[in-house]
Amino acid sequence: MGIALADAAADFGAEVDLVLGPVNIRPKNISINLIDVTTAESMASECISRFVSCDIAILAAAVADFTPEKVSDKKMKKNEADLILRLKPTTDIAKTLGAVKKPSQLLAGFALETDNELNNAYTKLVQKNLDIIVLNSLNEEGAGFGFDTNKITIIDRNNNIDKFELKSKEQAAEDILNKIVSMINKMTIV
Q1: DSSP letters of 102-125?
Q2: Within-domain flag for 36
Q3: Structural domain of residue 26, as residue ranges?
Q4: Residue 81 maps to a domain
């Protein structure tokens, strides 16, 4: 979904930086500035450093909430003792950016929910100071991870809700960007 959004934003004429985790696909639009990362920490660092100079940030990555406390660069040998894996929270990128967002910036996030979907997504939008949140449901066949299609619901900060049918991720990206453009137009009119 993030790659579809980056391609669509570039097609809309935006200057796009795409911070991209390890995936098998690449954006089609060659004008996109691609920043490859391999850890949640490096993704957070890249997003935070770039946010100051951007007008719009769309956070579509499914970043892990936890990461191992210790990482080994060597094979861990099997022994008789139980292995205990200690985890630490990763940086909440959306919350971090929402805390420093300027009135002239627009921040969009994603929520993958399985129950109380609308309420949970709106709560996340408020808690992280987002302008819009794109709700993905794991309850919808053909939507979310591992599919070329998605069924989204967009909720804005005024609790306006736009529901969309199942469609290609490229079409869903256009729906998201059209919502963002309409919000920017309202920001400049006010």
Answers
A1: -TT-EEEEEEEESSSHHHHHHHHH
A2: yes
A3: 2-63+86-189
A4: no
- CATH at residue 95: 3.40.50.10300
Check residue 69 and give left, alpha or beta (phi > 0: left; psi -120 to 50: alpha).
Answer: alpha
In sequence order, which residues have a C-beta less than 8 Å from that of residue 158 and are 6 or more positions away? none
In terms of Cβ atoms closer than 10 Å to its own Cβ (0-12, 13-18, 19+), residue 75 is exposed
- Paired strand residues for 108: 58, 132
Domain annotation covers residue 141: yes
- Are 69 and 88 in contact by the 8 Å Cβ rule? The answer is yes
How many domains in the chain?
1
What one-letter code names the amino acid at 117? E
Q: Report whether 163 contacts 150 (CB < 8 A).
A: no
Q: Which of 170, 159, 90 is nearest to 130 (CA)?
A: 159
DSSP 72: -
* pTM attached to this predicted model: 0.88
Determine the Cα–Cα distance for residues 189 and 144; give it in Å rounded to an integer: 35
- Residue 35 to residue 51: CA distance in whole angstroms: 14
Which residue in this structure is represented by tokens 């309850």?
139
Whether 41 is covered by a domain: the verdict is yes
Q: How far is Cα 155 from Cα 169, in angstroms, rounded to an integer?
A: 18
pLDDT tens, residue by residue, 42-101: 999 999 999 999 999 999 988 888 998 888 888 888 887 888 889 999 999 999 999 999
